TrEMBL record:
Transmembrane segments: none annotated. It comes from the Eukaryota. InterPro entries: At1g61320/At1g61330-like, LRR_At1g61320_AtMIF1, LRR_dom_sf. This is At1g61320/AtMIF1 LRR domain-containing protein. Residues 87-373 form the At1g61320/AtMIF1 LRR domain. Gene3D superfamilies: Ribonuclease Inhibitor. Residues 367-386 are annotated as: Disordered. It comes from Vitis rotundifolia (Muscadine grape). Residues 375-386 have a biased composition (Polar residues). Pfam families: LRR_At1g61320_AtMIF1 (PF23622).
């Protein structure tokens, strides 16, 4: 009974009314056979696929069939003023896929009716250039993925706890989010269609300074040093720029050469209570063409980090490494200059077709043995496949 698909035809202006009736059907057992799937055809070739999951999650997937999507700006206001029906107020999670210039106003009108919306997901909206979200104290989670033309993002959500973004690095503002705990800022595709702004990046880093879980890309910290100079006074004037709450750091890079290891280590020192480190090597990730190094971050981290070594780091997971030598160099650098503990290292080796995770224990080597062991084997022991 739940797999039945309701097919309707109409105008784009009727989408809000149709979705409202679709949701109302769950309160009336005899209406629409309580169908959880809806296919609504509008205009000449537009299609909306709607699905309800767990009676609180609504998925809307649009297909406008435009050969060349028109660019558009989108301002979403999540302040529900009017009293909504029970069916609308029951929706906590809204997932939007492929909203375009033709449907953005209709979707905006629909969103304003969800009085208890807590999670919003925006995916693959081609043509979307600017996104502004005013959510007040409503939204708890925001996800924006794979919108290739997106240049500007502005988010105001006082109770926001989780934000996930994947795509080009846009101008990005997060305003007044004191409860933010988890931030995924996956900019592995590189800068968007505007000059790189150190000031904006610093503002974004300050906005996520209190999170517990953070995802970042290494290339952000390897931009040419002169670009940082106009912003240096701003960040150096803030002795409180430490990620004291951060427990998990997810780091994405296209390789792990020495200067990239130094960039990672410099940022880690700004996270004095870090417990877990996850490193993903993606060869397709953006690589800054500049040969500039991370001297600015190295100097800043050594200046403001009272603890020069991390004492709580207990686990490092490496994924995507194709060269065991890179794993060894990273492990030795962390032990020599970053950590004072002996964290477990988890890798996914590819030699001999092994796809299982392997654990390694990072241990200090007496100086007298270091040169010999550097030639014979990495400074890791207790390696076991799990």
């Amino acid at each position: 009974m739940w797999s039945k698909v309701l097919v309707l035809h109409g105008r784009i202006e009727e989408i809000v009314q149709v979705i409202t009736a679709f949701l109302d059907a769950f309160g009336e057992p005899d209406l629409l056979g309580q169908c959880r799937w809806l296919q609504y055809q509008f205009g000449q070739s537009g299609i909306l696929l709607a699905r309800i999951q767990d009676n609180k999650e609504l998925h809307l997937d649009f297909h406008e069939n435009q050969e060349t999507p028109k660019n558009f700006d989108w301002h979403l206001k999540l302040h529900c003023i009017e009293k909504s029906k029970f069916s609308l107020s029951s929706i906590k999670v809204l997932c939007l896929t492929s909203v375009g210039s033709l449907t953005k106003e209709t979707v905006s009108s629909l969103i304003s009716k969800f009085s208890h919306l807590e999670s919003l997901e925006i995916v693959e909206c081609k043509g979307l250039q600017s996104l502004r979200i005013d959510a007040g104290s409503k939204l708890r989670s925001l996800t924006v993925l794979d919108c290739p033309q997106l240049n500007d993002v502005y988010v105001f959500s006082y109770k926001l706890q989780t934000i996930q973004f994947r795509g080009w690095l846009p101008w990005f503002w997060i305003k007044c989010a004191p409860y933010l705990e988890d931030a995924m800022l996956d900019f592995r595709e590189g800068p968007a269609h505007h000059p790189f702004s150190c000031e904006n990046l610093l503002s974004l880093l300050l906005a996520v300074a209190n999170v517990k879980i953070l995802t970042l890309c290494g290339w952000l910290f390897k931009v040419p040093i002169p670009r940082w100079l106009p912003s240096a006074g701003v960040i150096l004037g803030r002795g409180d720029f430490l990620l004291n709450n951060l427990k998990e750091l997810w780091w994405i890079d296209n390789s792990m050469e020495k200067h990239k290891i130094e960039a990672l280590a410099s940022f880690m020192k700004l996270c004095p209570y870090l417990e877990k480190l996850f490193i993903t090597i993606d060869p397709t990730s953006y690589c800054n063409p500049s040969k500039g190094h991370c001297r600015f971050w190295m100097e800043y981290s050594s200046r403001v980090a009272s603890n020069t070594r991390l004492v709580n780091l207990r686990m490092v997971k490496m994924e995507g490494f194709t060269n065991p030598e890179d794993e060894r160099l990273l492990a030795e650098y962390l032990l020599e200059k970053v950590v004072s503990t002996e964290p477990i290292i988890i890798t996914a080796p590819k030699e001999n077709g092994c796809s299982k995770n392997c654990t390694q224990k990072l241990v200090k080597i007496p100086h007298s043995k270091a040169k010999h062991q550097q030639r014979t084997q990495p400074s890791l022991t207790e390696r076991n496949c799990i």
